[in-house]
Write a structure and sequence with these properties.
The complex is a heterodimer of chains A (469) and B (160).
Chain A: H1 2-18, H2 31-49, H3 54-68, H4 90-95, H5 100-117, H6 120-129, H7 136-153, H8 156-171, H9 180-195, H10 204-212, H11 221-246, H12 266-283, H13 285-288, H14 292-305, H15 311-314, H16 319-337, H17 340-347, H18 355-372, H19 375-392, H20 394-397, H21 401-413, H22 424-431, H23 437-464
Helix pairs in contact in A: 1-2, 2-3, 3-16, 5-10, 5-14, 6-7, 7-8, 7-9, 7-11, 8-9, 8-22, 9-11, 9-22, 10-16, 10-19, 10-21, 11-23, 12-14, 16-19, 17-19, 18-19, 18-21, 19-21, 21-23
Chain B: E1 4-9, H1 13-22, E2 31-35, H2 38-50, E3 54-61, H3 69-78, E4 86-91, H4 96-104, E5 110-113, H5 118-136, H6 149-158
Parallel strand pairs in B: 1-2, 1-3, 3-4, 4-5
Helix pairs in contact in B: 2-3, 5-6
Classes of the chains: A mainly alpha (469), B alpha/beta (160).
Chain lengths: 469, 160
């Protein structure tokens, strides 16, 4: 099975590489652009079929670009003339490994690692959960709130693992036939998936989106939170209602038992202080002028100097996540620099479609893809094209252009949450064996549908309040 | 994909049969192999290593002719190829001395007393497999239903 998938992922792109450019129904397409199409198809196929781990697909994209598209490409593949097209400086392709986006994420990783190591996460969870008492519905809301807040700064997977380790012992105490167990268990992945939308570092698709919000379209860390956090809050409350409606809890009392107390040593204080300072700096760039990428280097440096994150901890960094994003950036770079994205989008007469149809289609495609493949890979594939649609289609530019379509599509990338394979948090919840796929799909589909509609409402409000200049 | 092996060692065929029966649920994703002596187990592990597969868990009886269970586990502990292999001693007849040796030189991860219950042994093997898979960096997602959730959460919590 895996073998056939691999063959499909290799053969189709190879076929495109071998056919003459004249056959491709895009007027004026160059050799280089044709190679970008082949690489894009390879990326799409192997991210969907996953014959190889998704981050290795990213690495392959980068290698293929270096060999086939760069100014240092294989000599015998290059030729003079206009038909060849515009090659990409190899240095730009390699730079994707250390793109500012990657550094921003690295900063987020350092914050998350330090918080876990000094048990800030566990202790915050304990303190924040205590006001919610022992009524199951309230506890469930507390769990969702904390999961959502944490997943804005930590990876959705790590947050889910932490919250499930708190929650699962309690589920064992529920009455065996209590459907509410399902709801309680699902509340964690649902909140983690939704919460990730809240900040640029909450989930990789957001970071990918930042990559395409450049020039006049730049959105700062604080600006992102100013619209994303209210969105998360509303969708979280809706999600809570849906879960307690679908899976009413019959157990009368639930007591979450989180042990521990805040560490009171110098290193722990450095962690708390750095955490607060970093977030404050992220929110106040309009005062001090340092953008989010620069601020992200502060926790990285402070935690390294102080030995809070040591060489051993560096091995726990999810390089696979960073490389997955790098490959996406490299793919976007190729589509942009070679001019293929422009050519592709302008060849489809989007002008004839009403803007609402375009936005709805983009959101639906993103949400659908994200259900069956990695959210980040979905963003990697769709956002470079969507960004061009936003700038070239006149009817959209009046409504907020790139910013608007990118926000809607990025949120939609986080709406893939109906299946156990949709996101790692879903897989973890499913792994407990308490729920079936159907249990997960019901609220997943309802919440995602409402989430998509809500994202339209969000950009409408942003449009009316003059967020898009 | 490389296969993961669960190796059961005991000189009594009826015990091996019972073990095989209790570990049936692992058959689908793992290779459950039985050996009637420590020497056979060592030979098998050698073969597994040659093929590039993994000897994930070894469950052995203590009292056996020639090499005892602790002898076997000590050999495995000393062999760098099987550094991450999870070691379980399954016995009803271990002396105080054996137990000390099992911990100090055998490096055992779990001690199961005979007679065992199916539930107990299943849970312990799940824990060991999870530990092995996470240490080796094998993609855990495809083994989800055989993993011990608690061990998994602890590991994922500390990853970014």
């Amino acid at each position: 099975m895996k073998f056939f998938k691999l063959v499909a992922c290799v053969l189709l792109p190879l076929l495109i590489l071998l056919i003459p450019t004249e056959i491709i129904p895009l007027s004026g397409i160059t050799e280089i652009e044709k190679r970008v199409i082949a690489i894009f198809i390879f990326a799409a196929l192997s991210w969907v079929l996953e014959p190889i781990p998704i981050y290795t697909t990213s690495l392959t994209i980068i290698l293929l670009e270096l060999v086939l598209l760069s100014n240092k490409a294989l000599t015998f593949l290059k030729f003079e003339g206009e038909d060849y097209g515009k090659s990409i400086p190899y240095i730009d392709i390699l730079h994707t490994f250390a793109s500012p986006i990657i550094i921003l994420f690295l900063g987020g990783f350092f914050l998350a690692m330090a918080a876990t190591k000094y048990r800030l996460d566990q202790n915050l969870a304990r303190v924040l959960l205590s006001p919610f008492g022992s009524s199951p519905k309230a506890v469930m809301f507390g769990v969702m709130l904390i999961t959502a807040i944490f997943s804005m700064f930590m990876s959705n997977t790590a947050t889910t693992a932490m919250m499930l380790s708190i929650l699962t012992p309690v589920l064992a105490l529920c009455k065996p036939d209590d459907k509410g167990k399902i709801g309680l268990l699902l509340s964690v992945p649902v909140a983690a998936n939704i919460g990730g939308i809240g900040t640029p570092i909450g989930t990789p698709p957001n970071a990918v989106a930042l990559k395409y919000l450049t020039g006049d379209d730049v959105i700062s860390f604080g600006q992102w939170m100013s619209f994303a956090v209210p969105y998360v809050a509303v969708l979280l409350i809706i999600g809570w209602f849906i879960l307690i409606f679908l899976y009413p809890i019959r157990t009368e009392q639930i007591k979450l038992d989180i042990k521990g107390q805040f560490l009171k040593n110098t290193k722990a204080y450095v962690v708390y202080a750095t955490f607060i300072v970093t977030i404050l700096l992220w929110l106040t760039d309009f005062i001090h002028g340092m953008n989010a990428y620069i601020v992200a280097m502060i926790p990285v440096t402070v935690f390294s100097i102080s030995g809070i994150i040591n060489k051993k901890d560096l091995q726990n960094i999810s390089w696979d996540v960073l490389w997955l994003v790098s490959g996406g950036i490299a793919l976007g770079l190729a589509l942009d620099v070679t001019g293929l994205a422009d050519r592709l989008i302008s060849s489809i007469s989007f002008e004839n479609f009403p803007p609402l149809v375009i936005i709805t289609a983009a959101a639906l495609i993103a949400a659908l893809m994200a259900n069956f493949m990695s959210n980040t890979a979905t963003a990697n594939l769709l956002l470079p094209l969507i960004a061009v649609v936003g700038t070239t289609v006149a009817s959209l530019t009046d409504l907020g252009g790139s910013q608007m379509v990118i926000i809607v599509t990025t949120i939609a990338c986080s709406m893939g949450m109906a299946l156990p394979i949709s996101t790692p948090p879903n897989a973890l919840a499913f792994g407990t064996g308490i729920i079936t796929t159907k249990d997960m799909a019901k609220p997943g589909i309802v919440i995602a549908t409402i989430g998509l509609l809500l994202s339209f409402a969000l950009v409408a409000i942003m449009f009316l309040t003059g967020f898009f200049k | 994909m490389n296969s993961l092996f669960i190796i059961c060692v005991d000189d009594q065929p009826e015990v091996l049969n019972a073990l095989e029966q209790d570990l049936k649920l692992f058959d689908e994703k793992f290779n459950v192999e039985v050996c009637d002596s420590a020497a056979e187990a060592i030979e098998l592990m050698d073969e597994i290593d040659q093929h590039g597969d993994y000897a994930a868990v070894v469950i052995t009886d203590q009292v056996m002719p020639e090499l005892t269970g602790v002898d076997l586990l000590s050999k495995i502990t000393g062999d760098e190829r099987f550094h991450d292999t999870q070691k379980i001693l399954l016995t009803g007849l271990a002396t105080h001395e054996d137990t000390i040796q099992a911990i100090n030189t055998g490096g055992i991860d779990h001690y199961i007393e005979k007679p065992w219950s199916k539930e107990e042994i299943t849970n312990i093997i799940k824990k060991c497999l999870t530990q092995f898979i996470l240490t080796k960096g094998i993609e855990y997602q495809s083994y989800m239903e055989y993993l011990d959730q608690d061990t998994l959460y602890k590991s994922l919590k500390t990853n970014t």
